[in-house]
Amino acid sequence: MIDVKQVGKRFGHFAAVQDLSFRVEAGEVYGLLGENGAGKTTTMRMMATILQPTEGDIEISGFSVRRDPVEVRRRIGILFGGDVGLYNRLTARENIAYFGSLYGLEPARLRERIDILSRMLDMEEFIDRRVGAFSRGMKQKVAIARTLVHDPDVILLDEPSTGLDVTAANIFRRMVSRMQDEGKTILFSSHNMGEINKLCKRVALIHKGRLRFAGTLECLREKFGIVDLDDIFMAVVEGSEN
């Protein structure tokens, strides 16, 4: 469960996030929507305890990011967009194993998790190759596996399908559905409205750091009187919403 309670984040005089509140239930796949600069990544960095809120608080599985950051970090897996942050001289397996060891996984359990994720993400052909020569999509798969290696209860994914081809993106969506069936709580940001439509029943839409909507996709369409999610997104960005 993720509970965002009147959260704000300032950098000097600039308010990146203002009075943001929404709740993600346990076992839910929840979408965080907004254009670049809307405050999505800042919000997720606060959830991950990388940044501390200026105002308000966030609870992850009942633990406060302010008061219990270590407990929060134990329970989350986080993948940020942009640079995947892998070690090019290590193989995919070695990269995943390194991060798994940081979470204290025993060697046998770590091998088991890597084998499971390798199959789930269709990485078996390149799991023992060095990542330096990998394509962007291959590196993204390794980064996703690294995020999930310790089997976290809460998963934060910032543009997770970046660089994935159609086949790999479908594999990723099936994996998300499987994790939801296992009771995982998943928050992910995406510009891919088709992906949001397939995976999420509820979303939060933020614009310029403020919440514009939180609720079901059905209610979102009713609010704006628009069926197409891309058109709703543009209506908010262009300031033409009802």
TrEMBL record:
Q: Which organism is it from?
A: Brevibacillus choshinensis
| Name the record gives this protein | ATP-binding cassette domain-containing protein
UniProt cross-references to InterPro entries, sorted A to Z: AAA+_ATPase, ABC_transporter-like_ATP-bd, ABC_transporter_ATP-binding, P-loop_NTPase
Keywords in alphabetical order, please: ATP-binding, Nucleotide-binding, Transport
Q: Where is the ABC transporter domain?
A: 2-233
Q: Does the entry feature the keyword DNA repair, yes or no?
A: no
The record's comment on protein family reads: Belongs to the ABC transporter superfamily.
Provide the GO MF annotations for this entry.
ATP binding
Which Pfam family, any one of them, does this sequence belong to? Answer: ABC_tran
| SMART domains referenced in this protein's UniProt entry, alphabetically | AAA
